[in-house]
């Protein structure tokens, strides 16, 4: 059963139950009122007959009473019969007014009313007044049946109107849901990037907004996955291809098991080595990511000198930066206090940041590492920055850098080196966070970039 049907049925049912209950209460109240009216009418009949009897006593006119009672019987159908007994000095004379069988009916209730008049002390009238309760009952029942019929007609119209309204309302409410399920189906069939146009300030509006966000994220993830597959393929294929071609070249330059040109041979050998390094670096990155994902990225913290690690990294990249025409220096003070860190992992952080900086800094630019101490409520920290005067990146590119496989558009316009896979900064962030620190980035297109991370001081 659809939500629309359920909603329509339940609203209509609820409405019908509410109206039914209201109707029952109304009919019950009406019955009480009608019964009270009937009792009043019975009282009026009795007192009218009584008054007529008193008048006839006073005026000594028996016939007046008899004709008046007959008149009353025509006026009040409930006045079934009246037995009038004149009692005078132990003599009793009775007259029955009304059908003979009336006094025998079970529905007729008789009331004994003695009537005396001060002007005729020896004479009185005994009235036996038969009131037909069955007449009142029938009258009440007929009136109630008419009311119930009218109410049923009215409620029927109201319930149909409620059903139509609730169906319209349910359709209005579920329309975006139906559209949402259609779009979700399309996305499920692989048509990514679909959005649903729906504006409302309620839960449905929030659901649609959340759905659109999810759809956008899926599209981004899909694009990321595609980029990653092509980057991984490239990262594996290009060093392997290079190694294969250098090996072929070397094989061609061998005569009798010896190289014909040892200097050239050495160059090929060095190229092979650097490609093997690139390959193993990439595989290590993948292994690190797998460790991070499994929560197995362990850092053994101990007091260490970060300035030494920074100098080592600068030395490591010295040849490359010179070749690229970029100045690379560490401005970390040799007397800087120790930090609590894992030297190998922090080295990996700085290597990643410096290699990124080199990738985006053109000839004539500079890269430097600097550090600043600060204190918060809990500890003393060292904030280390790797700053370059390179190409920088826009705000959009800065958003996803620290995510797995997150790369900016600028990865296509890098200065040197392979494109990479967007894992470096994800690993950097994970290592820094395992140290209890934080990472951040500031960048401006054409001006340069600053990456910083914090690490607790011993
Ligand atoms: N110094 C920088 N200047 C400008 N952009 C940068 C800089 N460092 C990083 N980026 C941007 O951040 C992205 C992510 O960097 P990250 O180190 O995570 O991946 P990568 O360098 O592209 O690949 P990998 O490090 O896995 O080889 C880069 O692709 C680039 O868009
Ligand atoms: Mg990188």
Present the secondary structure layout.
Elements: H1 3-59, H2 62-75, E1 79-88, E2 91-97, E3 108-116, E4 123-132, H3 133-188, H4 203-252, E5 254-255, E6 258-259, H5 262-293, E7 302-304, H6 306-316, H7 318-324, E8 327-330, E9 339-341, H8 343-360, E10 366-375, E11 380-388, H9 395-398, H10 424-434, E12 439-444, E13 448-456
Parallel strand pairs: 8-10
Antiparallel strand pairs: 1-2, 1-4, 3-4, 5-6, 7-9, 10-11, 11-13, 12-13
Helix pairs in contact: 1-2, 1-3, 3-4, 4-5, 5-10, 6-8, 8-10
Bound molecules: adenosine-5'-triphosphate and magnesium ion.
Explain how this protein is built.
With 458 residues, the chain is of the alpha+beta class. The protein has 3 domains: 3-139, no CATH class; 203-291, Helix Hairpins (Orthogonal Bundle), CATH 1.10.287; 297-456, 2-Layer Sandwich (Heat Shock Protein 90), CATH 3.30.565. The chain is 57% helix and 18% strand. It has helices at 3-59, 62-75, 133-188, 203-252, 262-293, 306-316, 318-324, 343-360, 395-398, 424-434; strands at 79-88, 91-97, 108-116, 123-132, 254-255, 258-259, 302-304, 327-330, 339-341, 366-375, 380-388, 439-444, 448-456. A 5-stranded mixed β-sheet has the order 8-10-11-13-12. Strand 5 and strand 6 (258-259) form a beta hairpin. Helix 1 runs antiparallel to helix 2 (62-75). It is rod-shaped and about 165 Å long. The chain starts with a helix and ends with a strand. The structure holds adenosine-5'-triphosphate and magnesium ion. Magnesium ion binds at residues 352, 355-356, 420, 424.
């Amino acid at each position: 059963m659809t939500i629309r049907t359920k909603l329509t049925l339940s609203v209509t049912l609820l409405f019908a139950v509410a109206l039914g209950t209201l109707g029952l209460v109304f009919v019950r109240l009406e019955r009480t009122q009608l019964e009270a009216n009937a009792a009043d009418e019975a009282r009026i009949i009795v007192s009218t007959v009584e008054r007529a009897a008193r008048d006839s006593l006073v005026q000594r006119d028996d016939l007046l009473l008899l004709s008046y009672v007959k008149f009353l019987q025509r006026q009040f159908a409930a006045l079934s019969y009246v037995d009038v007994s004149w009692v005078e000095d132990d003599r009793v004379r009775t007259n029955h007014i009304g059908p003979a069988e009336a006094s025998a009916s079970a529905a007729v209730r008789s009331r004994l009313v003695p009537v005396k008049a001060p002007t005729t002390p020896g004479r009185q009238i005994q009235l036996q007044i038969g009131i037909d309760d069955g007449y009142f009952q029938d009258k009440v029942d007929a009136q109630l049946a008419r009311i119930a019929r009218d109410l049923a007609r009215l409620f029927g119209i109201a319930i149909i109107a409620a059903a139509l309204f609730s169906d319209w309302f349910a359709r209005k409410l579920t329309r975006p849901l139906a559209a949402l399920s259609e779009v979700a189906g399309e996305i499920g069939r692989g048509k990514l990037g679909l959005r649903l146009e729906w504006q409302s300030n309620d839960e449905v509006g929030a659901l649609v907004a959340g759905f659109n966000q999810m759809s956008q994220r899926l599209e981004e993830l899909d694009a990321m996955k595609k980029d990653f597959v092509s980057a991984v393929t490239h990262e594996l294929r290009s060093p392997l291809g290079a190694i294969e071609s250098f090996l072929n070249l070397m094989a061609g330059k061998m005569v009798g098991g010896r190289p014909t040109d040892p200097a050239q041979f050495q160059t090929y050998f060095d190229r092979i080595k650097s490609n093997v390094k690139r390959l193993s670096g990439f595989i290590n990155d993948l292994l690190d990511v797998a460790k991070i994902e499994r929560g197995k990225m362990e850092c053994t913290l101990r007091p260490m000198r970060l300035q030494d690690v920074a100098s080592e990294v600068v030395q490591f990249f010295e040849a490359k930066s010179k070749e690229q025409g970029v100045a690379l220096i560490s401005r970390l003070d040799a007397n800087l206090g120790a930090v609590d860190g894992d030297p190998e992992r922090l080295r990996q952080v700085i290597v990643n940041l410096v290699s990124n900086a080199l990738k985006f800094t053109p000839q004539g630019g500079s890269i430097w590492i600097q550090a600043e101490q600060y204190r918060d409520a809990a500890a003393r920290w060292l904030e280390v920055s790797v700053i370059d005067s390179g190409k920088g990146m826009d705000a959009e590119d800065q958003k996803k850098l620290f995510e797995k496989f997150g790369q900016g558009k600028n990865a296509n316009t890098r200065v040197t080196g392979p494109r990479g896979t967007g894992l470096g900064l994800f690993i950097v962030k994970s290592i820094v966070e395992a140290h209890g620190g934080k990472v951040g980035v500031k960048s401006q297109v054409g001006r340069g970039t600053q990456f910083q991370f914090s690490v607790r001081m011993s």
